[in-house]
Write a structure and sequence with these properties.
Blueprint (H helix, E strand, L loop, with lengths): L1 E6 L9 H13 L5 E7 L4 H4 L9 E3 L11 H9 L4 E5 L4 H13 L3 E4 L6 H5 L2 H17 L3 E4 L2 H9 L6 E3 L21 E6 L8 H10 L5 E6 L6 H12 L3 E3 L13 E3 L5 H10 L2 E4 L8 H8 L4 E4 L5 H5 L3 E4 L3 H13 L2 H18 L2 H15 L9 E2 L1
Parallel strand pairs: 1-2, 1-4, 2-3, 4-5, 5-6, 6-7, 8-9, 8-12, 9-11, 10-11, 12-13, 13-14
Antiparallel strand pairs: 7-15
Helix pairs in contact: 1-15, 3-4, 4-6, 8-9, 8-13, 11-14
Length: about 400
């Protein structure tokens, strides 16, 4: 079976999708009887990052007109000529949705849509009028004609129903490749204890209130590392906030030998591959104070390194709270401060136990090997090759 993955970007510009879609397509490709093909749009980093998809060779297409619209006639033509049996759209509100509509009209073959959190209430409220226009032009058709909707979590499935969609839904999360280290492995030491955020530096991630809380926390023995790529100048807003609050900060991109002082904040810049692994090895805890997520890869990665996680309910991994692998916070400053105070006051043994529970949770539910097999069953079903899997909700 040939499965085509259609995404607006195959580079770091895609944020978490750069890791999740890549891993899903690669692990499905490794299954007997399956072949993955990847179709995407060109951006500033696609030529550099395409090699990370090996052994897959994504077909990357130029955009015609405004880049934000993602319209690509060559993508449409390539999909029609691809001989794919099933397509799986990753993300919505872009020209890729229009291209899949075109493929479906021409080929009359089934496709799935994974909105990747883009139907959640916060996401719908952001640039609402643009999404209403896109919905009328092409997105509502794309969603309504899908043979199956792919939700990453229960709350995303509820958001799909709230949007008015009546399609079958499969709830299959993102996954993780377990690192070579495990809970109990000796960590590298960096002096200060390290709280880490890894991800896109964007207002929806909740870093403003997190840093306001950090400025009021008794931070003895700790530093806060923010590793990620800036979007829309938000990083400078965070730096200005820290300066005004009197919290010391450094930017490692100015001098890679500089590190934050006790109680300070360190802006690390984008981090990938071995550099990110090294950062997670020296970290002591992870935070994601987000307003909206699909299912964040960064949290799963933190757990895979045995780290305790501080996160909001909007990260959509309630299993983490149920397993006592995470400290729950709200998105407001006071709630985040309370969660951080809980973290820094815990004995070292208790902190390690929280992280170990997170690692076990990932092993039990969130490995790509498990997830790719579930996804393959759905592909076979929508293609008419097998009976409906139990995971499908009508």
């Amino acid at each position: 079976m040939k499965v085509g993955y259609v995404s607006g970007s195959i580079s770091r510009n895609a944020g978490g999708l750069f890791f999740s879609v890549r891993s899903l397509s690669q692990t499905v490709n490794a299954l007997a009887g399956f072949e993955s093909r990847v179709f995407s749009l060109e951006d500033a980093h696609s030529a550099e990052d395409v090699v990370k998809w090996q052994p897959l060779r994504p077909n990357v297409h130029k955009v015609v007109g405004p880049g934000a619209l993602g319209y690509s006639p060559s993508l449409q033509s390539d999909l029609v000529a691809s001989e794919c049996d099933v397509l799986h759209t990753q993300g919505i509100w872009q020209g890729c949705s229009h291209a899949v509509n075109h493929w479906h009209d021409k080929m009359n073959k089934p496709y799935l849509v994974a909105p990747r959190g883009m139907l959640d209430p916060w996401a719908l409220a952001n640039a609402r009028w643009k999404k209403k226009v896109a919905g009328l032009l092409y997105e509502n058709k794309h969603l309504q004609n899908a043979a199956c909707l792919h939700a990453l979590c229960r709350s995303e499935a509820e958001s799909m129903r709230a949007y008015g969609l009546k399609n079958p839904i499969c709830v299959i999360p993102n996954g993780i490749h377990l690192p070579e280290i495990g809970a109990g492995a000796e960590k590298e030491q960096s002096g200060l204890k390290t709280l880490v955020f890894i991800g896109r530096i964007h207002p929806k991630k909740g870093l403003v209130h997190a840093l306001e809380a950090w400025s009021q926390l008794a931070r003895d023995g700790w530093k806060f590392v923010i590793a990620g790529w800036d979007q829309g100048g938000h990083e400078q807003e965070l730096k200005d906030l820290l300066t005004k609050a009197g919290v010391p900060w450094v930017d490692r991109r100015d001098d890679s030998t500089r590190t934050a002082s006790e109680g300070g904040v360190e802006f690390y810049g984008s981090t990938y591959g071995d550099e990110k692994k090294a950062l997670l090895r020296v970290a002591d805890a992870f935070i994601l104070p987000s307003y909206s997520e699909g299912l964040p890869m960064a949290v799963l990665e933190a757990w895979s390194y045995g780290l305790p996680v501080v996160m909001t309910e909007f990260c959509n991994i309630p299993e983490g709270f149920e397993a006592e692998a995470a400290i729950e916070i709200g998105t407001d400053k006071e709630s985040i401060l309370a969660g951080l105070e809980q973290l820094v006051s815990l004995p070292e043994a208790a902190v390690q136990e929280i992280g170990e529970r997170g690692l076990q949770l990932v092993k039990d539910k969130f490995t790509w090997e498990q997830i790719s097999k579930q996804m393959a069953e759905v592909y076979q079903w929508v293609a008419g090759e097998t009976a409906q899997p139990e995971i499908i909700e009508l």
